[in-house]
Design goal:
The chain contains 25 helices and 10 strands. By secondary structure, the protein is of the alpha/beta class. A 5-stranded parallel β-sheet has the order 2-3-4-1-5, covered by helices on one side. The N and C termini lie far apart (about 130 Å).
Amino acid sequence: MSYLVLARKSRPALFNEVVGQKAVVRTLQNALAQNRVAHAMIFSGVRGVGKTTLARIMAKALNCEQNAPESEPCNQCRSCREISSGGSVDLVEIDGASNRGIQEIRELKENIRFMPTASRYKIIIIDEVHMLTTEAFNALLKTLEEPPEHVYFMFATTEMHRVPVTILSRCQRYELKRIATNELAAHFKAVAAGEKVEMDQAALNIIVREAGGSVRDGLSLLDQVFSYCGAVVSGEDVTEMLGLVSQQSISSIADALLAGNIDDALGQLDGMYDYGLDLKRFINDLLAWFRSLVVCSVSARPEDLLDLPEDSVAGLKKTAAKYPARTLTLMFNALLENLEKAGFSSHPRFAVEMAFIKAVHAREVVPVSTLLGRLDELLETESADTDKKKLPVERAEKIIEEKAVAVDHGKASEGESVLVSRPGQEAAGAPDSPRAVEEAVEEQGSGNAADIPAENTKKPEAGAVKEPGGEGGGGRRSGAGGQRRNVRQHWAEFIHYVRDRKPWMASALQLASAVKLEGDQLLIHYPTATDCGLLKNREHITPLTEFALDFFQENFKIRFVLPDAKQCEIDQINGKTPQQERQALASDSLVLTAVDIFNGEVGDIRVGPRFRKTMDENEQADNDGPAEN
């Protein structure tokens, strides 16, 4: 008799011999004991986990002449022996890959019309049922929904998603999982003992890892190993026979990459390449190793997530404890992104070497969160220094206001003109202006307000312009050097002026879409009401008015204009306001695409020549103000 491979020799004959699949086995045994067996069942799962084996055991249990309907077949009666040997005429086992047409299904339907020949039931097992054609599935629907009482259907498939829903809805589904590592190791150890072969733990771990949760794949590997090694099997022999890279070599390369020793890593890769390693397999093993390191670094119980032996998990924990989780994650991500290219490259070795270099450089990458934290620290330091510099200026402003009030009350009754200036603005002809006081305070640093002499605030000379609201109020005030500023031309400078005093107010002014001067009103246009919500408050509009008075030397009344207000100019062509056109242009898909491609930002927006009207003479005269005498 020819040699019987281990995959067939050790095939389970009882439910209790099935490796793993405890939930499925228990369900089937209870269904037999309670006489609740479905007329159609479908077993799904990866290769070699026991789909066809369970179907055959179930067929024996249904037709067993001694124990039926018990939860285990006897394997001694005529029916059990015939099914085990494959000679039962009442068990029809079909390969769905080679009998996939509608004609085969028609013949099957004709066959099941007849009663069983020698058994209690006629069992139909279709392996790889997902290979049937659509027409074959359709021909099977009605029979599967209402089969004869003497027929049971059992299907097996590795691709459940390819089976039509109409078939699945007529079957009880049993999904078989991959076999756990410890269960596979115990089973393979028992098989080796039955074959009188001695295996060390390293060899057993390699076979279990290569099996990938499949009993049949592992038994096939054991057959090869037993033939190569004989009665004693070691880990080195298994590695050499299968052409694998040992876990020790993978660990050594991983340690070299984590330590930044690229020379050592490339040298080890060269040695393994000369040895004839499979690069694709090496890539998978290396990625799996780094994935395990990341899991050990971030998980409190990595053994629950890693299907590895205890000694391997202990070694991974020891390595992961040497490095922060961020370093392991960055290197794993760099390897994952770059090693995938090696599988499609015409020079896979070059791609692997470049992946090593990039992975080592990834250790030096500074996270964005760290950079942002450093930037915040710098901004806080700069803000603190700026506040220290502004402290004398603010103290000077307070002193000047007090002096100005004292002078106003003390001198105005005598009929003299009083000029009240603010820091940064010197009155024409006033040699000892409050600007001198501010400079004096800046020189004194953190000196007290009492150190500033009262003589620094003096009467203005003849011809000085009066304070609005006093005698001669409503007149125009001149700027420094007798020159006034134009609102439109100097609006950006005004925002910078405000930023030195109230940064948030300057940011709010930057959101304005346009500014315009109409008489004594300064109109500030905003696209939405939320942009000027804070500025409209009484507590904020007062300092803003004072800033405008100080900078432009104009007694403005500030007004805010929104798109739905009457002051907005409407385009006679398309009926849109300039603000609406600007918003439409800024949100245009072509503009957004260009900004994204060039990594830029939207600057000034011009909506067309029709909105670039030159100011008429009256508007120009209004902006410039009356000439000084």
